[in-house]
Amino acid sequence: MKTLHITPGDSAGGSLIRAIRDAGEDDEVLPFRDDLSCGPIDSDEPSARAIWWNRFYEASEVAAALAQFWERVTTTDDRLVVWFGRHSARELAFILAWADRIGERPYQIIDVTGRRLPFRGRDDSTALSQPVQSVSIVQPDALRSLLGTEYPITAKVRDESRQSWQRLRSENAPFRIVTETGLVSASIDYFDPPLFAQATPEWQTIARIVGNTMGYNSEPYFQTYELMLQARIVTLVEKGRLLADGDPWNMSCRIRLPD
Question: What SS3 class is residue 128?
Fold first, then answer.
């Protein structure tokens, strides 16, 4: 039987394809190209997510890509192996949504959480060993070492995952964040304190503020990515709580605290 590997994003997917090919295998990898840790999740329709993403960038192909993803995984006869990390909000949201959507269909999982594996630094120049938060930061060589370690999802974990996702969908909050108790809903201003903690009376680029904020929120969990933090900065600038020297939708724009 052929194996179809499912990853929570293109970054993880690209690394896994390389790992599989380096291992001399020809298994297929299918990435899920949405980040369900942010935005509305009350609808299962891919078009609803596409409409929301269109607020931030051209997302004309999002709906089709999501529809094709679910069509493929629900109709294939391939053995399904799903990769994820529980300390990443994006990846944990994905696996909960997956469990809810896939139903009783058997599948296997590879959970990288807490494993001490090499990870990809921001400049892609260094591989260090530390407990892993997500699949997306794991080097292909390390992913190759995990091939064949998959195990079946248990009925208990599957049912708990489905219940968690149904609760989160009913809450339909702007963000979902990782905590010691799992994934929970968070308000639109959840990231304001760490953003303000990085801002100063001196001008700094948004890229620096966002990067420092992501680092601040990276241990032991990874909560969100650049675009959502930048969008929040834009809102804070519009409200006068931060000052901008230019267009805040440009990462090179400088911002500072008001006098």
Answer: strand
Taking only the tens place, the pLDDT of each residue in 56-101 is 877 778 889 999 999 999 999 999 999 999 999 999 999 999 999 9
Collapsing DSSP states into helix, strand and coil, what is residue 234? helix
Please tell me the number of Cα atoms within 13 Å of 143 on its side-chain side. Answer: 29
- What number of other Cβ atoms are within 10 A of residue 129's Cβ? 11
What is the tally of helices (H) and strands (E) in the chain? 9, 12
- DSSP letter string, 146-182: HTT--EEPPHHHHHHHHHHHHHHHHH--SEEEEETTE
Phi (first) and psi of residue 245, to 5 degrees: -105, 70
d(CA 231, CA 222): 18
Per residue in 30-65, pLDDT tens? 999 999 999 999 998 888 999 999 888 777 788 899
Cα 24 to chain centroid, rounded: 28
Residue with tokens 């390389």: 18
DSSP single-letter state for residue 104: T
Cα gap 224→188, rounded to integer Å: 12
Give the closest residue to 164 by CA, choosing from 225, 218, 217, 96.
96
Is 66 in contact with 41 (CB distance < 8 Å)? no
What does pTM read for this prediction?
A: 0.90
Q: How many Å apart are CA 46 and CA 48, to the nearest integer?
A: 5
Which helix (H) or strand (E) covers residue 190, if one does? Answer: none
Contact 31, 13 (CB under 8 A): yes
- In total, the chain counts a number of residues equal to 259
C-alpha separations of 88 from 37, 42, 82, 224 in Å: 9, 21, 15, 8
